[in-house]
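Retro notes
What went well: the complex prediction finally ran end to end.
Inputs used:
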Amino acid sequence: MSEPVLKYEDVTIAYPNGRRAVLGVSLEIRPGECHALVGESGCGKTTLGRAALGLLPGGTRIQGSIRVCGIEITRAAPADMRRLRGLRAGLIAQDPFHAFNPLARVEDHVAEAWRAHRMQPPQERILAQLTEMGIPDADARARQYPHEWSGGMLQRATIAAAAAHRPALLVADEPTSALDADNARGVLELLRTRQAAVLLISHDLNLVARFADRVSIMKEGRILESGATDEIMRRPQHPYTRELLAAPPRAFKGGERDGELPGRKEGFALEATGVCKTYRQRGRSLVAVDRVSLRARRGEILGICGPSGSGKSTLLRLLAAIEPPTGGSIAFGGKPVPDAGYVMPIFQDPVGSLDARWPVWRTITEPLLASHRKERPGRAARRSIARERLGTIGLASIDPEARPAELSVGQCQRIAILRALLAEPAVLLADEPTSALDALHAGAIVRLLQTAAAAGTAIILVSHDQQLLQACCHRVLRMREGELKE
Amino acid sequence: MRTYGRGISRRLWGQPAGRAGLLLAALLSLMAVGGGALRDAAPDRMNLAEKLQPPSRRHPLGTDQFGRDQLARILDGSRRSVGAAVIVMAGVLIAGLTAGIAAGLVGGWGEAAAMRGVDVMLAIPSLALALAISGLLGPGYANLLLALTLSNWAWYARLARSYVLLARLRPDVIAARMAGIGWLRTAAGHIVPGVAVRLAIVATLDLGTIIIGFASLSFLGLGVQPPDAEWGAMLAESRLYFSTAPWLLIAPAGAIFLSVVAANLIGNGLREADE
């Protein structure tokens, strides 16, 4: 048996603030193997991956042993770590848009893989790498800036940079979460064609399982179960794994999906007619949303899917009346401007959508303080309302005094939805509400949205997850290059 | 907010540098508050028979050209020097926060006008501006405090505004606005607490510069007037005797140095403790 490329032995990691993110994890990855680390956000999988590259913040305490290509990371000198990163081990970051400096050309980013180690970047190698990654017309495109590339192409470029020196190990942290399904598959296939061993970090068991040789399931800093992918998929031992596997997409089925829409007679909660949005950019005009018309009935879940950059987010901002459209009109229950709380948003990043300083009860009951309301409850009343509402969605165990950092990501999202519902909205705009969650929590979110719809709220659900949309929406519209099609 | 503050101070205490800064600052505050009681010799009492004496058991830091006890003057001066730094910092923070948050929330023409005003303020070196203002107002302790505040707030206004602009895009702020919460309530609940903490951290980093700026202007004779003791002014008086009585120079310079070190240690520690 060959020496493992990456070996964790009884690793415990504590952050400077005392939080222990990883508890006694042992794991090894052999050359050329793809090992998926699966778990919900906050379970310690990112910490574990970053530890292998020595990328944790100063003051973090690591117990146990982490060896990359036989080098003990926990005791390595900074100079050794620099030689290790890039040459023997590479990182592929989660969000390709943030991984690139918007002011530098894409080729400069790839060239950085050589410059960082004081080598002359070979121009033809850069282009060859990009071509190999499936970038068409690499010669011309490499001289473009990151904003001219799509997320999928940028992620390919980061793989090209990370794999430039044929490292023995690639750590890919949620490499596909900013990408739509087609791009995600392409990127994962590409990762597999590299000769390197891959530590693939993800919250989506069903997606990564198809590409990984082995899978480890992580929860609350511990590895619950580890084994060959086939084995885990066919005979999961741990109940959490079983739930993860069982959750999508069957759990979304049922409810009102095929039945009569409730409240159909009440008309449209939201009606957009021929809505356009054009941005001016260096003299050129950029059409982000092109003559979109849509109608959402009360109680309807309307799905919108489409690749990144297709104008989904812009459309949502128009529907939320955050920005005015440059053409066309939107009627909010017959009015040109929505009443306060008529439209409420649900965001992609659950933790960021709650005020980190506020206890849960304050966040949940915030809409009750809106200036159009005549009676505003006091603190005691707000606390009891929050407790009662938490109970109705099965989160009675949560202390209303808790802050977002003490909760799981899935719990944060459910609290964000509770807040939105307390504004008694006619329309909920949900932008990728489940993309940061594991299948289990995603199921809970969808059920919550379905309950809200059954109570008469129109829900516009934007996602790149086709399965999710097919399973829970009454209608799905497809967005492409600013246009919307049924 | 409360737990956030507690967490950050615990992390600050947890770092060696931060802890050293806090201890030093505590010592300086103790000097400023309880200095008079520590040393019963009056800071202004002249005794020409004992003038320009080197440090001794009776006068641990020696005496000046009028025979005044140097230790008593350092202790007495700490009240004005340390106090000035704290007052100027508070003034700068309040003025900068108010202007910056107002500009960030109002937007449009009002914001543009306010920010161009800030640009003009920033274009002039702050010490030169303080010099001009205190020259205009005339020398004096209160006037100098005002001059330093006026010449330093603009930077904080600019910083506060940029934090507010970022905060306006935060999901929790958008959700609050869409629910119909007014701008004032949203700002008070979601925006101001975070911006204030950030700004206070930056201000602590700047505290050293403020101490030096105050001492410099005071050195030039614009601040505290004789016979009151103040470190910068003491430094100015001592420069005539630096070859015969170097202790007169070392004591106030050392005091200024220690207070700047304390401020910088705390400032750096806070920045690191703020994740």
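What we learned: The two ends of chain B are 15 Å apart (CA to CA).
What to try next: split runs per interface for comparison.
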